[in-house]
Amino acid sequence: MVESNYDILGIKMGASEKEIRDAFRKLVLDHHSDRGGDEETTKKIIQAYEDLKQGKSYPDTEAERQKKSRVYSGTSDEDQRKRNLVLSGDVAREMNIAQEWAATLSRSDQAGTKLFGSKELGEIEFDRKLSGDLRIKGKFWAGRFSYDGPVTMAGSITNPYFAQDESVKTVITITKGSFALQDPLQNNFTIERGAKIIVENGDIIAGNVSGIKEILQDPQGRVGLYITKEHYTELHAPRGRILVATARETTLLDGDVVVVNNLVNNVKVRARVITVFGATINYDCELEIKQGGYVEFHDEGSGFALSDDAVIKLDNGKWFKLRDLKTSNMVGHGRQITYDYLDNLAKKEQSKFRLFGFLKKK
Question: What pTM does this model have?
Answer without folding.
Answer: 0.76
